[in-house]
Amino acid sequence: MTDRVIRIIGVPIDLGADRRGVDMGPSAIRYAGLNARLQRLGWQVEDLGNLNVPVPETREIQDTHLKYLPEIAKVSAELTETVAKALKDGVVPLVLGGDHSIGIGSLAGIAAAGKKRGLIWFDTHGDYNSPQTTHSGNIHGMPLAVANGIGVRELTEIGGPGKKISEENTVIIGARDFDLDEREMLHRSKITVFTMSDIDQLGMKEVVSRGLEIAGRGTEGIHVSFDLDVIDPSEAPGVGTPVAGGITYREAHLAMELVAESGLLLSLDMAEVNPILDTHNKTAELAVGLICSAFGKKIF
Ligand SMILES: NC(=[NH2+])NCCC[C@H](N)C(=O)O
Ligand SMILES: [Mn+2]
Ligand SMILES: [Mn+2]
């Protein structure tokens, strides 16, 4: 595995969320020892540093249904190019958020590189809102919908027209909090949703195995987009939108270990770490642990 390269792309953005602070996520994750720990696993690490992201203090909200749209569109376009280039260079992009609007650029970049890959979206939320269904106007509640062609063209056409995901190969795991119309739209889509209730009933192993089968079917591999708020707030307090009843520490690791074992993982996002709300960088540490599990770390 020594010849394999992970390219780290930091996206210090919090324009997509109401709570400030996730812009410090990339720092907190690096501070938790990301690069050295990946190297110890035998990976070569290329850290590109962070993309340039404006801070909200220098901007004004123009549309309350799509807060900071021009700024997020610009960052997403840059991320799209950066991810597409990484894939063309044959390295593995690891995108550090930042709020989950980073999913827009990651998925557009994958599509722009001409890759047909499945997607597993670990999240409490569906992130499947449109400007019409959103209650918050926060774009981090929309990236999966955008990738599926729903929303304004400023976002859906980043990296080219058309859908950036194949619905049949898209799976959400760990969901427990939808907005009403968002839930309706997801029901009407061909996206597979495994809720917390499914995890309770089937167990994480079965859910992830089924998820990998669905996401991997007929594709070159999968992208995993991991929102730390999928984990129970007792283990991951440093997230912007915590919701009770999440997956456990071990369930999260098991999921990543199964992803690694499948050999399907081609790119990864780690989103929504909020150091301001964290205790002693616990959530960022967990994020690094999960990244390592996803990239092959075994207990024994
Ligand atoms: N990536 C996230 N944490 N998204 C939270 C979204 C919450 C809510 N559904 C909204 O649209 O605002
Ligand atoms: Mn999310
Ligand atoms: Mn979430």
From TrEMBL:
List the SUPFAM superfamilies: Arginase/deacetylase
Extract the GO molecular function terms from the UniProt entry: arginase activity; manganese ion binding
Q: Which domain of life is it from?
A: Bacteria
**Which Pfam families does the entry mention?**
Arginase
Where are the annotated coiled coils located? none
- Enzymatic class: hydrolase
Q: What NCBIfam families does the record point to?
A: rocF_arginase
What Gene3D superfamilies does the database record attribute to this sequence? Ureohydrolase domain
The UniProt similarity line reads: Belongs to the arginase family.
Cofactor(s) needed by this chain = Mn(2+)
Please give the pathway this protein is involved in.
Nitrogen metabolism; urea cycle; L-ornithine and urea from L-arginine: step 1/1
Ligase among keywords: no
The top of its lineage is:
Bacteria, Bacillati, Bacillota, Clostridia, Eubacteriales
Catalytic reaction list: L-arginine + H2O = urea + L-ornithine
EC number, as in UniProt: 3.5.3.1
Q: How is the co-factor bound, per the entry?
A: Binds 2 manganese ions per subunit.
Gene Ontology biological process terms in this record: arginine metabolic process
The record ties this protein, via InterPro entries, to: Arginase, Ureohydrolase, Ureohydrolase_dom_sf, Ureohydrolase_Mn_BS
**Positions with a binding annotation for Mn(2+):** 100, 123, 125, 127, 227, 229
**Which keywords, in A-to-Z order, does the entry hold?**
Arginine metabolism, Hydrolase, Manganese, Metal-binding
Q: Output this protein's name.
A: Arginase
**UniProt source species:** Acididesulfobacillus acetoxydans
Is Manganese set as a keyword in this record? Answer: yes
Recorded GO CC terms = cytoplasm
